[in-house]
Model the fold of this input.
Amino acid sequence: MMNVRIPTGRFAPTPSGYMHAGNILCALMAYLSVKSKGGKFLVRIEDLDVPRCPRSRSREILNVLDALGLKSDAPPVFQSARTAAYAAAERALSKCAKLYPCFCTRAELHAAHAPRSSDGESVYSGACKYLDAQQTAELSAARKPCTRIEVPDRTIAFVDGLCGEYSQNLADDCGDFIIKRSDGIYAYQLAVVVDDGESGVTEVVRGADLLSSAPRQIYLQRLLGLPAPQYYHIPLVCDAFGRKLGKSQGDSAERLLNEFDANTVLGGLACAAGIIPTFRPASLDELTEKFSWANVRRDAIALPEKFTDIP
Ligand code: GLU
Done:
């Protein structure tokens, strides 16, 4: 029998600051995209970096989603509770790829002579790749290493549902990348792949700032034998005056919900994204029915003036 995968989408916020209208818009697009296919919507709290992600922020995010009806179809997953799954993935990766400790300092990584990708990002040089046992022992005495995974000199290409074709040669564009930080916290790139895989996620909707992470994630999916989801990277959301939204209180989703009812927030954001033509209240059911990726803006998304905090 064919293994039919239920359309499954997710919203995966990092609770390190206030949730803002751009985050709600991302959650709304993820919800509408998967619900318009009759699928499941999941929420995952990406609190890997526990000290930077207070529980109160996670609660705020869940409250905002609740107030808007963007409810998870399963209990929210907290990445802070998933270390064992990431460790198992690290063991699986160690059997099919080269993982190695890296002792480079931030200054060494970003030094002027460090290799750069075509867009100016620093590319890991592989400095620690061939350390012998004695060098590793000496360096270990001085500092804790992070763990990197070797990448192939091969192009990884995919078609993003909004941005179109995108490809990267991992060796040229980022080099061997970190899967576990030197403080023992698993890296976002690994955690996201493990969690999306385990939850059966078939589509990933998130901000365009993460487009360049997708090839690394696809590489890990292939090594772990996981299917690649369909990606939709949505443009960054700015306020009505073109200013970048911050994680400060002024731009917070909670402020928006104090001033407007849920359907006005949903309708206003859907209008900003291109789902409905005019600013008006709209229910999730109506927006689910109207949703089509063909209508979602591909350039910057500007919030309605009414949603912009004028200091
Ligand atoms: N946690 C990431 C963020 O808040 C999103 C990760 C993802 O959707 O893959 O920006």
